[in-house]
Amino acid sequence: MSDKLKNRTEKILQLLNKLSTEAAKGTLIVVEGQKDVGALHQLNVEGNFVSSKTSGKSFLDILTEIEQRKVREVILLLDFDRRGVEWTHRLKQHLEKTRIKPNLTFWSQLYGLVGRDLKDIEGLPAYLETLKKRIGD
After folding, report:
1. How many CB atoms are located within 10 Å of the residue 129 CB?
2. Of 57, 68, 72, 97, which is the most buried if we count CB atoms within 10 A?
3. Nearest-angstrom CA–CA distance, 65 and 69
4. Is 26 exposed, middle or buried (0-12, 13-18, 19+ CB in 10 A)?
């Protein structure tokens, strides 16, 4: 059991390292709120963020903000609950229409690793701490 948890923890940390590298290159990351940004900062992911729930932004407001940044690619890293999944897929469709590449790699891999254990990005630091304690690091 411990090997399985250790393997999962290592994969999550590797994924976060890759995300940090992409963020350092200036790739825009779309999250749901400021707490998600704070959680990613705790995990050493520094970069350009767009918060989709901040100050009552509409879906159109988010798309406009992304388009105004004149980027070619956007990493979508919304929550794993029903609303987050819906927004991720809607954003993906609309971004493709505007010829901005939506990157779902981090979202889908992270979702695959945390599954039903985690519903939001803001809980990721605590989730990792719990995993580390369970494997005895």
Report:
1. 11
2. 57
3. 7
4. exposed
**Residues 74, 28 contacting (CB under 8 angstroms):** yes
Kindly report the length of the chain: 137
Answer for the pair 106, 15: CB distance below 8 angstroms, yes or no: yes
> Are the CB atoms for 67 and 47 separated by under 8 Å?
no
Closest CA to 17 of 106, 137, 88, 78: 106
Positions of the chain with pLDDT under 70: 1, 54-55, 137
Read off the pTM: 0.91
Domains in the chain, ordered, with CATH? 2-123 (3.40.1360.10)
**Complete DSSP assignment for 28-40:** EEEESSHHHHHHH
